[in-house]
Amino acid sequence: MTNVEPDIRNELTALLPNLRAFSNSLTRNRDLADDLVQETLIKAWKNQDRFIPGSNLKAWLFTILRNTYLTHLRRRKFEAEDVNGELVQQLSVEASQGAHMDLIDFSEALARLPREQREAILLVGAEGFSHEDAALMCGCAVGTMKSRVNRARNKLSEILGLQDADGGESSSLSATITQHLVQP
To answer: Distance from first CA to last CA of the chain, Å, rounded?
Structure first.
């Protein structure tokens, strides 16, 4: 844009302090104010053919600056300042497919248990009844109920492959579900 008249260049330069002062009063943030002034000058430079020679250049620039500031405010409503990236980290969601598949596997394993063991593990582990109350409901001795729960727990661990090389339970999500659901 080399065809800009020298007096328009001079006027733009002369109006910089006024633009900065107006921008500072709008934003109360020196960095943002400087960014708005720069953006205003870029817009004015790109759209200089829209400026009518002989009209009020200062009013035209202040209008561009004000509109640029208002656009910034509208956009800011939809943005959150995230300097350290903490908000972005909170937006990520763990994949839920694994937990869903674990639940399906657990349900299938539970269905493979003998009826008495399944009933015992559900009463004690899932429903939270004591061994004594569960034994009363099933019409068996407390020792029998404890044995059924223990055998069900071991069988579920075996079916789900939750035993590690040492014979202890692994730390997978399925093991955690099983531990919380079926341990006395």
So the answer is: 82
Q: What is the pLDDT of residues 53-86, one digit of tens each?
A: 888 899 999 999 999 999 998 888 777 677 777 7
pTM (whole model) above 0.70: no
Compute the distance between CA of residue 162 and CA of residue 3 in angstroms, rounded to an integer: 79
Looking at the structure, tell me whether residues 63 and 121 fall in a common domain: no
**Is position 84 within any domain?**
no
Q: How far apart are CA 96 and CA 126, in angstroms?
A: 22
Structure tokens of 89? Answer: 């980290």
116: helix, coil or strand? Answer: helix
Sign of CA dihedral 1, 53, 12, 68: negative
Give phi and psi for 167, each to the nearest 5.
90, -5
Whole-angstrom distance, CA of residue 148 vs CA of residue 114 = 10
